[in-house]
Design goal:
InterPro entries: Macro_dom (IPR002589), Macro_dom-like (IPR043472). This is O-acetyl-ADP-ribose deacetylase. It holds the Pfam family Macro. It is a single chain. This protein is of the alpha/beta class. The chain has one domain: 3-Layer(aba) Sandwich (Leucine Aminopeptidase, subunit E, domain 1). It is built from five helices and eight strands. An eight-stranded mixed β-sheet has the order 4-5-3-6-7-2-1-8, sandwiched between helices. Helix 3 crosses helix 4 and helix 4 packs across helix 5. The radius of gyration is 15 Å and the shape is globular. The termini are close together. The structure holds ligand AR6. Ligand AR6 binds next to helix 1. The site of ligand AR6 has 24 residues, from helix 1.
Length: about 180
């Protein structure tokens, strides 16, 4: 567990659909109609009420975020965001990935969400290199804590052990561990 200002930062290894927090974040696509990876898992476990709400929302531009309830999942809300597809690192990917994290946090704050869990957005099917993506993710949440700071717990849920180790090694350098 890490502490930055008044916010707790957790790094967890496992399946985000099993995490009990106020909101989990989904790495969705522009349609919001489901897909593979973490998106597939969330819709499969959460049930059809999530898809019904997503259909009404009608899609989400890359870098933005939308919210639904969480169906059968243990959390209360799902924040659906869309990360960029990684091309050459030179096509606004970094900005868009940063915005996906930051806008998810702003939306969470609007809904008075106090605990939120993120998967590693864009680093699966969208092929964003994990180490680069991690640095963007950590920068976005630290900037959010600096500017807003109203969410008390932010978790990164990593599905792969190598990603989990990478995050811990990086955060140990950057942030106070308790
Ligand atoms: N819990 C936590 N992390 C997971 C889980 C899970 N249950 N399942 C996979 N991951 P991806 P993207 C990790 O491909 O790159 C979908 O089809 C996975 O190991 O889910 O943003 C959407 O519909 C990886 O580290 O998302 C879009 O079309 C990370 O989640 C597209 O994929 C992200 O991998 C989005 O691609």
């Amino acid at each position: 567990m890490y502490i930055y200002k008044d916010t707790t930062i957790n790094v967890l290894l496992g399946d985000i659909t099993e995490v009990k927090v106020d909101a989990i974040v989904n790495a969705a696509n522009n349609t919001l109609l489901g897909g593979g990876g973490v998106d597939g898992a969330i819709h499969r476990v959460g049930g059809k009420t999530i898809l019904e709400q997503c259909k009404k929302i009608g899609g989400c531009p890359t870098g933005e975020a939308r919210i639904t309830t969480a169906g059968n999942l243990p959390s209360n809300y799902i924040i659906h965001t869309v990360g960029p597809i990684y091309k050459d690192g030179d096509s606004r990917e970094e900005r868009l990935l940063y915005e996906a994290y930051y806008n998810s946090l702003l939306l969470a704050e609007e809904y008075n969400i106090k605990s939120i869990a993120f998967p590693s957005i864009s680093t699966g099917a969208y092929e964003y290199p994990i180490e680069k993506a991690m640095k963007v993710a950590v920068r976005a949440i630290m900037d959010f804590i600096d500017k807003e700071g109203k969410i008390s717990s932010i978790s990164f849920v990593l599905f792969k052990e190598t990603d989990f180790i990478l995050y811990n090694d990086y955060l140990k350098e950057k942030i106070l561990q308790i």
